[in-house]
Amino acid sequence: MRDGSHYWVGRRPLFKAARSLTLAVATCWGIGQTSARADAPYYPAPTAPTSGVPGLDDLQARLELQQNEIQQLHAQLTGLQAKTVSADMANAEAAPCDGDCKEVPIIEKPTCEIHGKFFWDDGSCAQTPANLVATGKNAEKNWTGFSLIRLQAKGWVYENVDYSVEMEFAGTFNGIVDSGTLTNPASNPTLANQWVSQIDQVQFKDIYSTIRYMPVIGNVRVGFFKEPFLLEELTGDENTTFMRRALTDNLAPARRWGMMAFNNVNENPYMSWYAGIFRYGFTAAGEANTGDYPIGVSGSSGAGTLPFERSNLDDWNYVSRFVWLPYYDESTNGRSLLHVGVDYLHAGVDPKNGGTAAFSSTPEATTLNSFCGTGNVNNANSLDQYDLEGSVKWGPLTITSEMCWANLNLNNGNVATIPSAYVEASYFLTRGDSRSYDLEGKRWSRTTPVEPFFWVRDEDTCCCCKGMGALEIAARYSYIDYNAVLKNGTTFAGSAGAGGDMQDTTLGVNWYLNGYTRVMFNYVHSDLTEHGRADTLANIYETRFQLEF
C-alpha cells in the first residue's frame, strides 16, 4: 500500500476498514431517515383560540421549546458521528497493517550510499624452535600496515530491489614490513617477501542484488556474497569481538558465486531460514580457493583471475541455515537474547580430476603461513559440513559458541572428519553498553557506545569535558583437529604433510570511541601438536585501529 511517501508491506487490517465503512453507511442511513424531518422548516402549529382553560397557552409554548431543543441535539449528534467516521478512516490509513509489517520509502529512482572502512594493524609472533619444526615453515615476520581497505556502494533501485557493490583494495599480504633489514621487493615477488607495500590486486567482496518482500519465499539474493554458514563468519569483520575469527572459520565457505532465498517463518521475526546454491570453487588442482577473487591485474594467476568462474567440475554446493531466538527482549531492542541455530552444507569435490581437496589453518592472527592442515586428500568425491550455533546475551555479558565439523567422503567409502569448535565471552565495563544484534540477518552488528569518546575544553572554565566511550574485555578458546582417523585406521590416505591439531587461547580488549571507530588489542597463545610431537607454542601480539564511514 502507498500512502504518499511510503510503501507498506504486510497485512492490511480489513476489519478496521469494514468497521469504518459499516459505521459510515449506518450513520448516513440514520441521517437520511431524520433529515426529512430535521431539515424541513419548522412551522409551529396554529395557536388555538383561547379556550379559557387555565395554562393551555403556556403548555403549548413549552412543547415548542422542547421540539427546538431536540432538533439542536440531533444536529450535534450527526456532527459527532461524522467526526468519528473520519477519525476511524484516518487511523486506518496511519496504521495500515497489524502484526509484522514494514514501512518502506517509495523509491522513484535508484539511490546510492557510499561506505568504506579500513583496518590498520601492527603485530608480532614469537615461535619456539619446536613450533618452527612442526610447521615446517620459516619464522613468521612482524607486520605493520593495512589488513583491510574496502569501499562499498549500496542502495535501492526500487522499493523491493536493493544492491551492493563492495571492493577490497588491501589484504593479508599488503603492507607487511619486517622489523629487520628490508630487501628489494621486486627481486622475489613471493609470499616470503619481507616487504610488500603495493596494492597488488583488487578483490570482489559483496556484489549482489536482492529482490525482497515476495510471498512465501520472501527474499532472493543473486551475485557474489557469503554463504549462510557459521554465525561468526556471517558477522562483519568490523563487528567481530576479536581481530581474527576463531579456528572454525577455516572450515567456512565464505563468499561464493550463487543465489540464496531467505525469509522469516510464518512472519515471525525471531525464526528465520536461509537456503542457497553456490559454486564451491575447488580449483582444477583440488585446492579450495579463498573466496577472494582478484580482477583485472596484470600478472595474476590461478583460479578466479576473471570476474566469473570457469569450470566443468562438479563443484556446486548446497547450503542451508535455520536460526531461532527463543528469547528476545523487545523493549530494549535485544539487550538480552538467546540465539540457537543449525547450518548444513553439501559440496561436490571434482571427481573428474581425482577428487583432491585440501584444508589448512593459521593461528588467529595475520600470519603468512599455515601452521597445520590436511595436505592433499586424494579420491574425495563430496564434502558434508555441519555447524551448531549458540549465543546468549544478558546486558553487558555475551557468551557465544559454535561446533563445526567437515566430513570428506572418499571414493573408497572412508570418511575423513575434521572437527572444530570455539567458545568466547565478552563483557562491557562501561555502564549501559552491550553488544548489538542484527535481527534480520541473525548475526552480530555494530556496537554504539552509550556515551561516545570526546575530550574538549569547557568554554567557561579551564576544565575539560570528556566522554569515555565503551570498554570491552573478552576471552576465547578455539581448536581444530586435522588428525582424522579413517575407517582403515590411517590418516588422510595419500596426503603429504597431513595432520596436526591447533588450540588457540585469545584475550582481547576493545575500546569503542564511537559507533564507527574502535581500537583493539589481542594476545593469542597458539598450541600446535603435529605428527605425534609434543606441544609447540607461538605467542602473538596484535593491535588494530579500525574506522568506518
Q: What this model shows, in words?
A:
- This protein has helices at 14-38, 56-94, 129-135, 231-234, and strands at residues 6-11, 98-105, 113-127, 143-158, 161-168, 176-177, 195-196, 202-214, 218-226, 255-265, 268-279, 294-295, 316-328, 336-348, 360-361, 372-373, 380-394, 397-410, 415-428, 436-438, 443-445, 454-457, 464-467, 470-481, 501-514, 517-529, 536-548.
- With 549 residues, the chain is mainly beta.
- The chain has 2 domains: 6-44 and 61-99; 107-181 and 195-548, Porin (Beta Barrel).
- The strands form 6 sheets. Strands 3-4-5-8-9-10-11-13-14-17-18-19-24-25-26-27 form a 16-stranded antiparallel beta barrel.
List the helices and strands and how they pair.
Elements lengths: L5 E6 L2 H25 L17 H39 L3 E8 L7 E15 L1 H7 L7 E16 L2 E8 L7 E2 L17 E2 L5 E13 L3 E9 L4 H4 L20 E11 L2 E12 L14 E2 L20 E13 L7 E13 L11 E2 L10 E2 L6 E15 L2 E14 L4 E14 L7 E3 L4 E3 L8 E4 L6 E4 L2 E12 L19 E14 L2 E13 L6 E13 L1
Antiparallel strand pairs: 1-2, 3-4, 3-27, 4-5, 5-8, 6-7, 8-9, 8-12, 9-10, 10-11, 11-13, 13-14, 14-17, 15-16, 17-18, 18-19, 19-24, 20-21, 22-23, 24-25, 25-26, 26-27
